[in-house]
Amino acid sequence: MANDKGLIVSFGEMLIDFVPTASGVSLAEAPGFLKAPGGAPANVAIAVARLGGHASFVGKLGDDEFGHMLAGILKENGVSGDGILFDQGARTALAFVTLRADGEREFMFYRNPSADMLLKPEELNFELIRSAKVFHYGSISLIVEPCRSAHLKAMEVAKDAGALLSYDPNLRLPLWPSPEEAREQILSIWDKAEVIKVSDVELEFLTGNDSIDDDNALKLWHSNLKLLLVTLGEKGCKYYTKNFRGSVEAFHVTAVDTTGAGDSFVGALLTKIVDDQSILEDEPRLREVLKFANACGAITTTKKGAIPALPTESDALALIKGA
């Protein structure tokens, strides 16, 4: 089925999360693990497709069983695989995830190097990237070369072709050489993005200040930005534009696993604005979109694993209606 909606291209990593079969135990104590497809940019692409949007993923997987499994999952979920590459010399990345009793996570990564890190600029599908109305990315692809150069090139090509640039840093400190390097590299591309979403934890990290008030959030503002979002978990989100700012409350659900909630939120936002960016300048309409995005994020926390938990539009509307 042809999708006539604007194309949202998501760039970066896709990997396998190994999630313990028991919550609230350390990795060493876990009796067993379930494999769950993950990687924030891939989650966003599937979130978009699940909501009826037009999504494509650009990234590199290992030419191994896990890599082909992940490519299959993208296709099964309606995400175009035209930007997927396979590396014969490196494995698909793995992450072991500890689920704490409160549903929050800790990570241990196997990437030395993994295929996603080896994406080269000349391997990119430029035709696909130029056709994006929204180009979305994180910061994990900035950690090492050659992937960093591929990331910067893809951003440049998308921007030159008129795409809206969307950035969710998706901080994973264990992957960076040091916190200082993480902060420097995440901020090195900050002024390029027009939509940025950070969590409260990322706001504290990037500003070096543990306050999540407006003054601290606005330290992250730059003149090219159209929308800055700070997600606050069960407290909803705050939004900042050139002309207005405010907050939108969350929906109260029983959280089982917070994996993918932020990606679900971003996917919902991008799906709603891709064909009508004037929403970013219209506060009542933007609030409605953020309410919908909050509902999508909330639903995603109610099941284990990111991708199985990503909602459809009717799931989100039912939560909104029932609230």
Strand count: 13
Structural class from helices and strands? Answer: alpha/beta
Number of DSSP helical runs: 10
Low-confidence stretches: none
Strand order of the largest sheet: 5-4-1-8-9-10-11-12-13
Coarse shape: globular
Return the average pLDDT rounded to an integer: 95
- SSE ordering: EEEHEHEEEHEHEHEHHEEEHHH
User: Which percent band covers the strand fraction?
Assistant: 15-25%
Percentage of residues assigned to helices: 25-40%
Profile the largest sheet: 9 strands, mixed
CA-CA gap between termini: 34 Å
Kindly provide the radius of gyration, computed on alpha-carbon positions and rounded to a whole number of angstroms.
18 Å
Sum this structure up briefly.
The chain is an alpha/beta fold and 323 residues long. It has ten helices and 13 strands.
Q: Care to describe what's here?
A:
It is a single chain. It contains 10 helices and 13 strands. It starts with 6 loop residues before the first strand and ends with a helix. The strands form 2 sheets. It has a 9-stranded mixed β-sheet with strand order 5-4-1-8-9-10-11-12-13, with helices on both faces. A 4-stranded mixed β-sheet has the order 3-2-6-7. Helix 1 packs across helix 8 (261-273), helix 8 runs antiparallel to helix 9 (283-300) and helix 9 crosses helix 10 (313-322). Strand 8, helix 4 (147-160) and strand 9 (164-167) form a beta-alpha-beta unit. The protein has helices at residues 40-50, 65-76, 126-130, 147-160, 179-188, 200-207, 214-217, 261-273, 283-300, 313-322; strands at residues 7-11, 15-20, 33-38, 54-62, 80-87, 94-99, 105-110, 134-137, 164-167, 195-199, 227-231, 237-240, 245-248. With 323 residues, it is α/β, with parallel strands linked by helices.
